[in-house]
Design brief:
mainly beta; Immunoglobulin-like; 2 domains; six-stranded mixed β-sheet
Length: about 325
């Protein structure tokens, strides 16, 4: 370990939350050396999408010993100093969430974002340290980089001495790999017609229900959010003698992503009764003649930007068929 690497690590701030502008007070030295020091993947996988949102869980576990070679408790100062280090540069991994426009790189937070799931993994999982006086910290790593990174861990004793996990040969570092964000074609989305839902009012004659699902290699990839919908409500004029026109609205988890002010009735309540987990619900309303919907124009294409369970965004376009009444279909 070169001197520059040690100096860089000595400058790193503590990772766990502390009172603002107040660092932990160093305790007296209660341990002399490292008994075990591991960096490993408790969930197995080492690959993630470079979308800045998906996370990999990296666990650091340490056990220390005193001058008599007996394992002892780890003091708070040392525990707070546990951190991940980029083995290639010797610099600490940046603490923070990857945001649009950030420099290319790898970052970590200390809390899992439960919205996003790791990629499926079926290989062997490292067991980690067992026994008494083992202290662990979990780091949730994300990236927008196209390159891999090797990570090791460091810990600082109360007297300022820094120890590195790579000095321990077994599980002293891990290599994480990124892959480009997934891009799916229209034919990997499925739009299924469910039928009519009970609904009638002064302005709406009936409501029909559709389900938009993402299927990749015969496996469903959950859609967890509507990032944007344009237009907010998809309008279709009617040549049918019974209807003024038709309009469709989109929902995930029973909630719409509607920013526009709409001056006519929307059947939002029905979305809660037709919530398909991991899919988008589309409701097509049939506007009554004589109602207040006032459909005077129409759109050719309806564009939905969706977010999947792995943190990737996708754009789907929907249009109405030429028949009367129309049917929603993928464009």
């Amino acid at each position: 370990m070169d001197a520059n690497f040690k100096r860089a690590s000595n400058r790193l701030p503590p990772l766990h939350p502390v009172q603002e502008d107040v660092a932990p007070t160093p305790d007296i030295v209660t341990w002399t050396n490292i008994a075990d020091f591991q960096v490993y993947m408790p969930e197995g996988g080492t690959t993630l999408y470079a979308n800045g949102q998906q996370q990999l869980k990296v666990r650091v576990s340490v056990r220390v010993k005193n001058k008599d070679h007996a394992t002892v408790a780890l003091d708070e100062y040392a525990l707070s100093s546990l951190q991940l280090v980029d083995a290639g540069t010797g610099q600490p991994l940046v603490h923070g969430k990857v945001r649009p426009g950030d420099p290319i790189g790898w970052q970590y937070v200390l809390e899992r974002n439960d919205a996003f799931k790791p990629l499926p993994y079926q290989g062997q999982i490292a067991g980690g340290l067992l026994g008494a006086k083992v202290y662990s910290r979990d780091f949730y790593v994300s990236t927008n980089a196209s390159t891999s990174i090797s990570l090791l861990a460091s810990i600082t004793r109360a007297d300022g001495t820094v120890f590195y996990s790579e000095a321990i040969k077994a599980h002293g570092r891990v290599t994480l790999n990124s892959i480009p964000p997934a891009v799916y074609s229209q034919n990997q989305f499925q739009l299924r017609f469910h039928g009519k839902t009970p609904y009638a009012s002064k302005h709406i004659s009936k409501v029909e229900v559709y389900q938009l699902t993402l299927i990749v290699e015969q496996h469903k990839v959950d859609i967890i959010k509507l990032n944007s919908v344009y237009p907010g409500v998809y309008l279709c004029k009617s040549e049918h003698p019974d209807y003024l026109g038709y309009y469709a609205s989109a929902y995930v988890g029973g909630e719409s992503r509607l920013d526009d002010v709409v001056l006519f009735e929307l059947p939002h309540a029905q979305a809660k009764y037709h919530n398909y987990p991991g899919a988008v619900t589309l409701l097509m309303s049939y506007a009554k003649k004589g109602g207040d919907s006032q459909i005077r124009f129409e759109y050719d294409i309806w564009t939905l930007e969706v977010l999947d369970m792995y943190g990737n965004t996708h754009t789907v376009t929907v249009k109405a068929s030429e028949q009367s009444p129309p049917v929603l279909k993928l464009s």
